[in-house]
Amino acid sequence: MPADDVPETFHVTTDEQLRAVSNLTRHRIMAVLRFEPATITQIAERLGLAKGSSSYHVRLLERAGLVKVVRTRKVRGVTERYYAMAARSIELPDPGVGGPDVLMRHAVADLEASPADGERHVRMAHLRLTGEQFAELGARLEALADEYRALSDPALPDVSLVFALFRPAARPRTEGDAK
């Protein structure tokens, strides 16, 4: 499937779609399919899953419309299906106040599962910004992520970039807080 035929964004709108992307194993399957199509066997090998488990999760993703068959081929009388993402990116609905942020939970799980001796850049910064600075920083982070996504080569190792720019909820002051 030529990359030009893939829609830019898939908007998650149904409960079935939200359940499909909320599962960590399915999140990891979608990461495998992000840059190139793969078969159930290839997905299973890449993620260390049983083929049956891989097949089950891919079927749920396909039913939700998040992945699709992009080509087939006959191998010793069996039809092999290659799956790919249905869009370049997925947009989830806002989780709402106090709701779980599925993407951040998956990102933290992936970070925790990454090799401890591998190269990582993790940083948290607390800033004080005007509304204009906040919007500018958000736009710059998104542009930088888009720039590097355009440079991605399926032959290179996977790298995950996650960022969250947000205003934390106001916390109530306690007696010991500085004034």
Describe this entry's structure for a reader:
There is one protein chain. With 179 residues, this protein is an alpha+beta fold. It has a domain at 3-116: Orthogonal Bundle (Arc Repressor Mutant, subunit A), CATH 1.10.10.10. The protein has helices at residues 15-22, 24-33, 40-47, 51-63, 102-113, 131-151, and strands spanning 9-11, 67-75, 78-85, 89-91. Strand 2 and strand 3 form a beta hairpin. Helix 3 crosses helix 4 (51-63). The longest helix is centred in the last third of the chain and has 21 residues, at 131-151. The protein is elongated, with a radius of gyration of 19 Å. The mean pLDDT is 87.
Descriptive keywords:
elongated, two-stranded parallel ribbon, 179 residues, 40% helix, single chain, Arc Repressor Mutant, subunit A
Major sheet: arrangement of strands: 1-4
Q: Bin the helical content.
A: 40-55%
Specify the CATH class of the domain at 3-116. Answer: Mainly Alpha
Average pLDDT level: 87
- The CATH architecture designation of the domain at 3-116 is Orthogonal Bundle
Poorly predicted segments: none
Mind describing the biggest β-sheet?
A: 2 strands, parallel
Q: Can you tell me the CATH topology of the domain at 3-116?
A: Arc Repressor Mutant, subunit A
